[in-house]
Structure formats: C-alpha cells, structure tokens
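Submission sheet (multi-component)
Chains listed below:
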Amino acid sequence: QLQLQESGPGLVKPSETLSLTCTVSGGSFSSSRYYWGWVRQPPGKGLEWIGSIYYSGSAYYNPSLKSRVTISVDTSKNQYSLRLSSVTAADTAVYYCATLTVTNQFCANAVCPDYWGQGTLVTVSS
Amino acid sequence: AIQMTQSPSSLSASVGDRVTITCRASQGIGNDLGWYQQKPGKAPKLLIYAASTLQSGVPSRFSGSGSGTDFTLTISSLQPEDFATYYCLQDYNYLWAFGQGTKVEIK
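Outcome: structure written.
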C-alpha cells in the first residue's frame, strides 16, 4: 500500500519560490503504473491540477501555471518535488501530492491507483 | 487546454433521493474521466474511473456514464455518508483538469 507524504515550509513570502517534496513509501516509486501529481485547493475553493510527472522524468503542467512551475523526481530518494516561483497570496492553498490517473492506462480489474498525501497548507504572506 | 464545466455547483437533497451531477468537456475526451468525492479536511477519494467503471470498494449506488464531451455521476439513493463535494477530473492527452465541484447538502 503506497503512502505519500508532503513536506516543506508552511509560510512563504510573496515573490519567493514555494518548494514542496512528496516522499513515497510502501511501494516502488519507479513503477511504470503511476503518474505522480500535484493538486492544490485554496481555502474554501475547488481542486486545481498543478502538474504531473512520470518516473522517467516526463513532466506535464497546467497551462495557467506552466511559466512558474517545475516538477522533478529523485528516484534514489523515492521523492518528487514541486517548485512554484513568484508566489502571491493567490497561491495560498492546501497542496496535495497524489497518484492521478482515471483512465484504463494504469487501471485494471476495477482497481485504479488512488493514493494521496494528507495535504499541507502553504500560506503566502509577508 | 480542455475546460471542464460541472453542474450544479451545489444541490440540496434528502436521504434516499436520486442525485445526478454532470460534467461537460470543452472538447472530446473519449472516456478519460473520473469522479472524486471529498469530505471536509480530507483528501479526495476516487469513485469512478474511465467514465463508468466503479472503483473497487465503492458502493454500487454510485454510477457513471458518458463519453466524448458529456458525463454524469449518479447516486441512486443518497445516504447520510454521501453528503460531500464531488469533482470530475479529465485525464486526456497529458493535461488533467478538474471540474469546479458540486457540494451535496442535506435538505
């Protein structure tokens, strides 16, 4: 059973870079069965996909955030990371790492990988 | 980018009611869509994948349908534990996008 855990600062100053890490345990991070994703949720609002990365390093980003986002993997540490630059108050949110897949590509026999971290609140404030 | 329009944004229903939530994609996405349930303070939970396949362990009162641009989540008989917010998520061509969410409240 995979477990995901976000870590990083809970407070970031405006114009600085938000950095979070997701540590994966209980399974193979280098499995070809998952896209490793980042999702955020501003207080009281809906879910927003930030980006996803495959274990090989191929990364995909939300077009609305693409100019500010970098997602990378460190397979030796079973981790992947998020960097979001030039943050503003609008980037204040709970940030989740998760295996995001809803297609038959990685799902079989009514089982689709659905693993999430518990979420970490990042506040952007001076 | 593909936009997902989810409706309604909220609804009030009673235990035992049949509830329907819809998501419309701005372009065809085949059946690359799933439905999540989120309760306050918790991470989302996958209910349906590939538009209509029930995730293992999810009660059979949940069902999904649709393909192309129009998709539906149906709860056949609403239970007390189903009061939550529901999101669709499309996963097409390496660009994911959530719908805006539907909050299901007790009438």
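Remark: The mean pLDDT of chain A is 95.
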